[in-house]
Structures are given as C-alpha cells and as structure tokens.
Amino acid sequence: MKIKSARNSLASDHNRTAYLFLTPWLIGFFCLTLGPMIASLYFSLTKYNLLNSPSWIGLGNYVKILSDDETFRNSLFLTFKYVFFSVPLKLVFALIVAMILNKGLRGLGIYRTVYYLPSLLGGSIAIAIVWRQIFAGDGVVNDFLGWFGIKGPSWISHPDYVIYTIIMLTIWQFGSAMVIFLAGLKQVPTELYEASSIDGAGKGRQFFNITLPLLTPVIFFNLVMGIINSFQAFTPAFVIGDGRGGPLDATMFYTLYLYLKGFSFFDMGYASALAWIMLLIIGFLTAIVFTTQKYWVFYSDDQGGK
Amino acid sequence: MVKAIANSNLLRHLFIIVLGILMLYPVLWLVSSSFKPNQLIFSEPGLWPKEWTFNNYVKGWAGFQGISFGQFFLNSAMISILCVLGNIITCSLAAFAFARLKFKLSKLWFAFMIVTIMLPYHVTLIPQYIIFSELNWLNTYYPLIVPKWLATDSFFILLMVQFIRGIPRELDESAIIDGCNLRSIYVRIMLPLLLPALITTAIFTFIWTWDDFFSQMIYISKIDLFTVQLGVRALFDPSGSSDWGALLAMSALSLIPISLIFMFFQKYFLEGIATTGFK
User: What is the CATH number of the domain that holds A276?
Assistant: First the structure.
C-alpha cells in the first residue's frame, strides 16, 4: 500500500516537474511556431498589407505564383542551381581533404584549424563584403588572372557568373563537414583495410567498398541538413548582389524574393504563400533523400540510425 | 618505391599548404587591407602593406550619426549573451524533461520538437513579425532574445537529450534514494554533467546570434540600437562609393569575437561538431 502510493506520488511528481520544465518550450511552440504556422497558412490565402485587415482571396496567391510570376520561377531555378552545385561539391571537397589529412600528417591540428575557420566566419556580413571585393572587376581574382594575360570580367556584376561566386563562398566553408568526416574516418576499423589488402584489394576498391559505405550515414545527415540550410541562404545573396536581386535578378534567391515581397512591398499574403511553397519544396526534397536512403546509406548494426 | 612515396608525401604537403593559404587568403586580405590607406587597397596586390595606417580604424570606430561602433559592439554583445543564457537554461530544462521524466503526451511533444528542427524559419517569419509589432517590440531586442528564452532552438534540445541519454541512470536513481527530488537532480546532477553540451550550445548560440543579420535587419532600424552586423552593412554601399578603409577595418573587428571564442574553446568546437554534425 505504502509502496503504491509512493509510486503514484513519484509519477505525479514526474508529470508536474516535466510540465514545469517544459513550460518555456510549450509557450514557444504554441506562440512562436504552431500558432504562426497556422496564421501564415491563413495569410497565404488572403491579400494582406499589414495596414488593412486581411481579405480572403482563396488560392489566388498560389495561382498567381505558379502561373504568372516570372521572378518566382527565376528565383526557384536559381536557388535549385545553388543547392544542386554547392551542397554536393562542398561534401566532395570536404571528403577529399579529410582523406588527405587522415593519412597521419604532422601538424594535423593546425591544418584542421585553418580549414575549419572559414566555416565559422563565412556567415558574417564582413566575409560576404570581402568576397564581393575579391571577385570584383579590380579584385584579386582578376589580378591573378592578369598574370596569365587573361582579362577577367567583374564576376559579381555579370549575371551569368555571380551565382558561381556565391557557390564558391559556400564551398569555401567546407571545414565543418570535413571535421565530421575526419571523425568518421577515425572510426573505420583498421582491420577492415588489413583484411581487404590481404585479399588483394587496391586503394580504389578499399575506398569504394569500405570507406565510402561506412561514411554514408554521415554523408546522408550532411546532405539533408545541407539541402534544408542552403535553400534558406540569404546573407551572401543579399550582400554580394545589390540587395534587390540584381544584376538582372541573378542573385534573387528564394528567401530574398520572399523578404522583398514581405518587407519591401508589404505583400504579406503573397510572401506567406511563398513561404508555404518553400516548406513544401524542402519537405519534398528531404522526403526524396530519405526514401533513397535504403539504397545507399549503410548502417552497421552497432551504429544505428541518427 | 621509397622515392615515389616521398614524392607523393611532398605533393600531399604541398597541396595541403597551398590550399591552406587559399583558405585563409580572404581573411588575410581583409586584415591587411584594413591597415592600408584607401588609395592602396585596390592598387596594391601584396598582403604586406607598404604603408601602414591606423586611420581606417579611427574613422570606422567613429561610426555614423554620432553613434560609435563601440555602441554597436555593446549592443551585439548584450543580445548574444542574453540569447546564450536563454538557450542554455530553457533548452536544458526541456531536454531533462524529454530525456528523463515520464509524463503524459511525452511522445507527442517529442515528435513536435523533432519536426521543428527541420522547419524553415520563413514559415513562421511573417506572423512572428506581426505578433512582435503588435506587442510594440519593433526596434527593441525582445524579438531577438525572447524566442531563445522560449527554447525555440530545438536543435540544442535534441543535442542535450542525446547527451543526457548517455549519462547512467543509476546516478539519478541513487540520488532519489538519498532523498533528492527531481528538481535538485536537474540542478545538482544533470547540469554539471551536461557542461560540455552546455558549452557547445553556448558557443554556437553566441556565434549564430552574433551573425544573425536577417532578424536584426528586420526588427532593428534605429541607429543607436544597431548591432555590429547592421553597422558594417550600413558602412557598405553596394553602388561602390563606400569608405573602403573604414568598412574593412570594422569588418575585421566584427570577426574578432568569434575568432577569440574559437581560439579559447577549440576543443569543444571540434568535438561538438564531430559528435553532433553541427555547422
């Protein structure tokens, strides 16, 4: 009897303490996440400029975006291009450098620091401004090309090239992924390599049959987070372009377009619809990566999924 | 044979060093240019200034409209520190509940928490903006700080949940037998053991808040409330007529807090990233 009541009081103590501890999170979840999500879904079905109350227009915003909005199509295409180039290239680069560093080099710590630093600093306004200047018409890149007699254009003001300077800025920040790969490489049991080299496997086969499969969980995780994050990239496009998507909408990233619609033109309904379309696209891309994982992601028994 | 290995070793070192220089070059260029007189910044390609000047820093630090960069640094530091405290406290409370306590609907809340990690910020952006403007919080720091005190960075909750799951349960059980209640288990046992995860959370919250240009731009427009990022952005004129010396000097200064944190907490960075897959 005594034990049972003690157990009951322990259970209710758990319940009370848990909800006490979760109070900030619950308030945040309802007031800053779930509530706003529902509100933005509602706004997306209205015309709303902050001054007048929202007026219901049904799917009007969505119809306009999908059928009659050149800028939307451009910005979506541009953002896809950015994600499609920057995410895999960053990972490939990170993996190559990690493989090289993993060969037991003297001064590994210093190199790791040097390579990691850009991924810390790269999100700042300062670096975006430097980047802009390096790729400008009179920038360092063109100085360098000048030694070989090549006269480069102003990469940042040329609509065909500016996207690649932003992609390069992202790849430049491969350090954090590299550190993750280095940690993964350390965990590959050396017996596997020994056994396979006795069986006559060369370096290439070892890489494709041992190293790569064991790293696939890490690659998978980085791929998912990379897609989600780079779809939302804003600062580099905002600073390296002119802040309004130029030159010729070549830096009109999706989030920049959304920002301009919402906070320059105060078309909050339209911007909300853009946000929901973005959510659906990101969700769809993530779902694709998740469904393909059974074909290429290798979980060893003791590791488990993340 | 040996020669080939030595050669490839040499090549490898060469590759790593050249790449290292390329990686650091933008930062080195920034620092070196910030010490050059304006007319030399774009005409002198070398990294070592022929002519040194500190004038850029003096001019830049003076800021604009009577507000110096010192004020911007104070503002950014205050915001970042309050955000760090908010995240450490509220995320660890939530994480303790999720990882250790049995309560009604726990699975449901946990699932919601996981989903919010992947949720793009923009879906809630506009209603949040409307809420904050209804509360008269535009041009205050509340929109930047309050969300952190409501544990909206679920990422860190998950990080701490994972960490707490690695702490042996016998510790709390024996504390219960010794008469500890759940609250004192959180304070006396969990928090000290969570320290590495708390430091990782603090570091990344600080850096992300310091660099969070987007939210700062949306919510802050009064110059005396400007953060460092907004100050640097205001010095920069995309049409090309910026005072480059002052701009680069303040850009260089804006990177110092993050670089210092990195230097002091390097171990936590590299371990934190390796175990959690952080940026």
Answer: 1.10.3720.10
DSSP SS3 for A61: helix
> Would A306 be classed as within a structural domain?
no
Confidence grade of residue A305 (pLDDT, cut at 50, 70, 90): very low
Best residue in B17, B34, B105, B279 to probe A by mutation, most A CBs within 10 Å?
B279
- Which chain A residues are within 8 Å of B255, Cβ to Cβ? 121, 124, 126-127
User: Does residue B180 register a pLDDT over 80?
Assistant: yes
Which stretches of chain B are DSSP H helices? 2-33, 38-41, 55-61, 69-100, 106-118, 122-134, 142-149, 154-165, 169-177, 182-184, 191-210, 213-219, 228-235, 244-264, 266-276
Tell me: do A221 and A168 sit in the same domain: yes
Least CB–CB distance from A129: residue in B102, B186, B251: B251
- Tell me: do A78 and A31 sit in the same domain: no
Q: Do B97 and A21 touch (CB under 8 A)?
A: yes
- The 10s digit of each residue's pLDDT in A81-108 is 999 999 999 999 999 988 888 877 777 7
Query: In this complex, which of B123, B208, B275 lies closest to A40 when CB atoms are compared?
Result: B123
- Residues of B whose CB is below 8 A from A258: 122
pTM of the model: 0.89
* Residue A54: inside a domain: no
Q: What is the ipTM of this complex?
A: 0.88
Q: Is the pLDDT of residue B191 over 80?
A: yes
Q: Quote the crossing angle between the two packed helices A108-121 and A175-186, to the nearest 10°.
A: 140
* A105, A279, A306 member nearest B123 (Cβ): A279
The reply to whether A304 falls in a domain is no
Residues A22 and A118 in one domain: no
Minimal Cβ distance to A271: which of B126, B208, B248: B126
Identify which of A178-182, A218-222, B78-82, B260-264 has the greatest average pLDDT.
B78-82
Q: Give the CA-trace dihedral at A211, A217, A218, A219, to 10 degrees.
A: 80
* Structure confidence at residue A206 (pLDDT): 83
HSE, CB side, 13 Å, CA atoms: give it for residue B9: 9
Nearest CA distance, B77 vs chain A (angstrom):
15
Domains in chain B and their CATH numbers? 66-276 (1.10.3720.10)
In a shared domain, residues A6 and A128:
no
Count up the domains in chain A and report the number: 2
Say how far apart CA B159 and CA B156 lie, in whole Å: 5
Q: What is the domain extent for residue A274?
A: 65-296
Asked whether residue A6 falls in the same domain as residue A92, the answer is no
Give how far A209 is from chain B: nearest CA, Å.
Answer: 23
Kindly report the average pLDDT of chain A as a whole number: 87
